[in-house]
Amino acid sequence: MAKLFNQILTSIDGFVWGVPLIVLILAVGVFLTIRVKGLQIRLLPRAIKELFVNEKSGDSGEVSSFAALCTALSATIGTGNIVGVATALVAGGPGALFWMWIAAFVGMATKYAECLLAVKYRTVAEDGHIVGGPFYYIEKGMGLKWRWLAKIFAFFGVCVGLFGIGTFTQVNGIASAVQSFFDPNKEDTVSILGTDYSIAIVITAFALAICVGLVVIGGIKRISSVSQVIVPFMAILYIVTVLVLIVTNIEKLPGALATIVEYAFGVKAVAGGVLSSIAISMQKGIARGIFSNEAGLGSAPIAAAAAKTKEPVRQGLVTMTGTFIDTIIVCTLTGLSIVMMGSYKVVGLEGVQVTTHAFQNGLSFLPAEVSSFILMVCLVFFAFTTILGWDYYGERCLEYLSNKSKTAVQVYRWLYILAVFIGPYMTVKAVWTIADIFNGLMAIPNIIALFTLSGVVAKETKEHFEKKKQESK
Fold first, then answer.
1. Where are the alpha helices (DSSP H) in 127-218?
2. Mean pLDDT throughout 180-205?
3. Are 132 and 386 contacting, i.e. CB atoms less than 8 angstroms apart?
4. Which range is most confident: 213-227, 241-255, 422-436?
5. Inter-residue contact 176 to 432 (CB < 8 Å)
6. Among residues 321, 245, 287, which one has the least CA distance to residue 97?
């Protein structure tokens, strides 16, 4: 039964993430890159500088621009950066990492555009909190006749939160890492519904559900305050650890880079012929890249809309850096460590086990338990903050879908906590496939909106910098 279920999910995933959607997402990213004149490259230093600029006292919003970015990063820097990259490299070969870079490059323009639109078209709810995102820029930017498209986006947004990125994949990744460290041979188990599970997984499920519940009840301000502390800490810890791995094995770096390019263009085939190999690398790399950095997915704009700023372009620049940090830096470091250590070729390894193998072999000067512990801690923090961020996204989507029903949001929170609790008991393959499917479905209405409103993005960008130029004279 489980095998048939996985086959059905795989077929649906192959259809959703087929050539049409991949081409659509890349085409819109390229189109937006042209419309904003390569802004993601030209103004990246300025965007990074804007991270540390204080908001003006009169700016409207609920949290600082940096806090909004941290909330967005809390949702993007997660298991996709550790488990997701490993899964992509095993299925699509090292070339998948190259296509992640391409997805990130054009995705920065996409992220800039969607977050600009989120601030421009945001609105204030009756109780005073700021709400915004694709559903509002579809409705207000494209017109009320497109509200049905906004509703579709909101529906899939709720599904992604409950069944995709927000819960199952993150909790499953945490549970796998905890079990691999504390009970790798499943020596201490308990039977649940006829299946034996490690006690480490059961304890993890309870602890996570409680911790998530304590935070999500507090809404965006509590989520952002937690994210501002955890996100920088976890990112720095992980980046430093992987840099040490790369530097201590620097002789393997040139070969790893060559391997990535060779697999990306079919010089070395993953499966089938050259074209088949390239297609698999592209599909796995782009799908996993979007899963990780969420550019074009429409999630980050929901957090960006809450930022204290009157300048849509400024917030677009700030949030755009999230894609750079997530994929160009964090995912690249993970991918390089896996390719350098050849972990993607080890038969029988899946998910976090692949990255664990890379850490244990790449940091061979440390006891295996220490390197595994570092990876486990990073993964737990990465996934925990993603769970928090996606609760907020799901709530805002449901708020729009239910005409701002507070009861619906409260019920959603409890269902979300329940999903966190049961996540560890699902199989790795099924979890990631479900996440991929909902990702693709959520991206479609947002991509349509970004293409339609690209003129607004171009106009806002031009007027903003012309105004800044005049002010500087």
1. 134-137, 147-163, 168-182, 199-216
2. 76
3. no
4. 241-255
5. no
6. 287
Report DSSP state, residue 166.
Answer: T
Tokens read off for 216 = 């999500």
Residue 402: is its pLDDT beyond 60? yes
List, in order, residues 6 or more apart from 230 with CB less than 8 Å away.
74, 381, 384, 385
**Sign of the CA dihedral with 367 first, then 372, 374, and 375 last:** positive
Q: What are phi and psi of 129, to 5 degrees?
A: -80, 150
Angstrom distance (rounded) from CA 279 to CA 265: 9
Single pTM value for the model: 0.83
**Residue 37, pLDDT above cutoff 60:** yes
Q: Are strands 123-124 and 189-192 parallel, antiparallel or unpaired?
A: unpaired
Tokens describing residue 26: 């890349």
pLDDT at position 295: 79
Lowest mean pLDDT among 47-56, 123-132, 203-212, 425-434: 425-434
Cβ proximity of 161 and 416 under 8 Å: yes
Q: Which residues pair with 124 in a beta bridge?
A: 130
Please write down the long-range contacts of 364-369, taking CB distance under 8 Å and 24 or more positions apart.
Answer: 365/248, 369/181
Which own/partner contact pairs does 264-267 have at CB distance under 8 Å and 24+ positions apart?
264/94, 264/95, 264/96, 264/97, 264/98, 264/99, 265/95, 266/95
Q: Which residue has the tokens 């509200």?
A: 147
Residue 197, helix vs strand vs coil: strand
Residue 359 reports pLDDT greater than 70: yes
Decide: helix, strand or coil at residue 124: strand
